[in-house]
Amino acid sequence: MHRRDIIKGLAASSVLLGASAITTPLFAGNDHSFDVIVIGAGLAGLTSAEYLKNQGYKVLVLEARERVGGRILTLNNQLNKPEVGGLQIGQGYGLMRTYAQRLSLPLVSLGNYAKQTTYVVNEQIINAADWPSHVANQLSKVEKNTLPSALYFKNMAKGPAFGLPTDWTSPKYTHLDIPLLEYFKQQQVSDEALRLINANLNAQSLQNLSAADAFYRLSLARAGGRGAHRVEGGNGRFTDALANNLQGELQTQKEVTHINQQGQKVKIRCGDGSEYNAKRAIITTPFSVLKNVELSGTISHLKRKAINEAFYTPVTQVHFSVKKQADVSMLESNNLWTDNALGRVFSQTNDKGELTYLTSWINGQQAQQLDTLPEVDAIKIVQQSLHKYYPGLKDKVEVVHHQSWANEKFSKGAYIQFAAGQVQSLVPHMATVEDKLHFAGEHTEFMNSGMESAMVSGLRAAQEVMGKV
Ligand SMILES: Cc1cc2nc3c(=O)[nH]c(=O)nc-3n(C[C@H](O)[C@H](O)[C@H](O)COP(=O)(O)OP(=O)(O)OC[C@H]3O[C@@H](n4cnc5c(N)ncnc54)[C@H](O)[C@@H]3O)c2cc1C
């Protein structure tokens, strides 16, 4: 088979899988020595590598998956190209927006995702207007008027507003590095409210999330402003475009298994036995994955602790395509918020207002429970739950994708979260340079969030190595 055919085959199989199409030139030449090796072709790694290449450094990116993008994943074979990973490009994402212009990628508003919400609580379907007096509403007297999806924000609003995003690690706020559950209990939040908050919390659980982390993320979100966008045609185009600028400097299906600092070199070995040397390495893999890579040479105790203990939020999704129109008008105009294994359901409609696509998005403990089951059983539970509340959808929707980010070998979770005590003990050590190893990725940058963090950290790590090689 010719090289071009292999590349075509790879690209075609990625499209069938719904992944971003990639072209991956085979490695040219036998010289396995580089100025910098970047591990991981997500947003952070690609940003680093492209920058260093443009500055004239000899760079290689090693990516374990057969596609680029990491936690950015667009389903290219579905109507409107839904996102499975990184979705919202916030108003404050200055670097990502500048790059989008540079890469000639137009951004489009995410208006279609921001709909009204219908609730399923204690097995009952409830309109927002009916919630305060509904029999399923078991909240305390003072909480009754608050919608289930607003309980978290209402209770967080009573807490401190960090002036600077960096405040959260300040010794001044050590008293907030406690489980958010404990903080809420101190605020007299009722047990039913805690149950509803936990049902769709953007973290593993209230017990496992530091209040300091929660307040920090809220400060960032507030500072970021309203009105998110995504790349027209899907965010996967963004990482594809960066990868296209790398061509010969990028190899996929290269799982790094060993990173060894020896003398003046970093020696890197992959699962297929191939070995590479560099003067410096930039590691962008999530720490949840890095902890399974053998790291030798000088690595501080605190860095090892951060790598071993960092935890990533479980997120599981089931995507449904609508085959035939059904009588489910409520879903056409609303998203769904449930207190059960269906999580939240985001609906999409076409220009005629007809339902075309549904995504069930399950967070935290509910996701963890589903993730213990074989994929087919997890899907069945979500499907049955959807049919229970919307029998009109039976035989009219089909499952087109299931994604457990926690079970994904090269992610092991959706995004970093810090538990009580970890804001003080781990955060200061996430990005520190360890001899010839530099660290980038969303988990290493705390002035921004998500995709913007990944990019900013990628540039920061690239600048760290410049002048040192
Ligand atoms: C469901 C979901 C929704 C999200 N929504 C948003 C959002 O709306 N807005 C936002 O800003 N952000 C969002 N994010 C977060 C955002 O997608 C990530 O922060 C960002 O994409 C992370 O980029 P990264 O480069 O740091 O890490 P990754 O994308 O994880 O890149 C790391 C790369 O390393 C590779 N790798 C792992 N192990 C190895 C190994 N051993 N050898 C070689 N390669 C390896 C991986 O395959 C991967 O490609 C979301 C994420 C998820 C999962």
DSSP strand tally: 19
The CATH topology annotation of the domain at 3-71 and 232-310 and 425-465 reads as: FAD/NAD(P)-binding domain
Mean pLDDT: 90
- Alpha-carbon distance between the two ends: 38 Å
Characterize the structure shown:
By secondary structure, the protein is α/β, with parallel strands linked by helices. Among the domains are: 3-71 and 232-310 and 425-465, FAD/NAD(P)-binding domain; 146-224. Helices cover 30% and strands 20% of the residues. It contains 15 helices and 19 strands. The strands form 4 sheets. Strands 1, 2, 7, 8, 9, 10, 11 and 19 form an 8-stranded mixed sheet that branches. A 7-stranded mixed sheet has the order 5-4-14-15-16-13-17. A hairpin with a 4-residue loop joins strand 9 (265-270) and strand 10. The site of flavin-adenine dinucleotide has 38 residues, from helix 2 and helix 15.
Q: Summed up, what is this model?
A:
This protein is α/β, with parallel strands linked by helices and 469 residues long.
Topology:
Layout lengths: L2 H15 L15 E7 L3 H12 L4 E4 L31 H9 L4 E3 L6 E6 L2 E3 L24 H6 L23 H7 L4 H9 L11 H14 L4 E3 L4 H9 L5 E2 L4 E7 L2 E6 L4 E9 L3 H4 L3 E3 L4 H9 L1 E2 L2 E8 L6 H5 E5 L5 E6 L5 E9 H8 L3 H15 L7 E8 L11 E2 L4 H4 L11 E3 L10 H16 L4
Parallel strand pairs: 1-2, 1-10, 2-7, 4-14, 8-11, 10-19
Antiparallel strand pairs: 3-6, 4-5, 8-9, 9-10, 12-18, 13-16, 13-17, 14-15, 15-16
Helix pairs in contact: 2-15
Flavin-adenine dinucleotide binds next to helix 2 and helix 15.
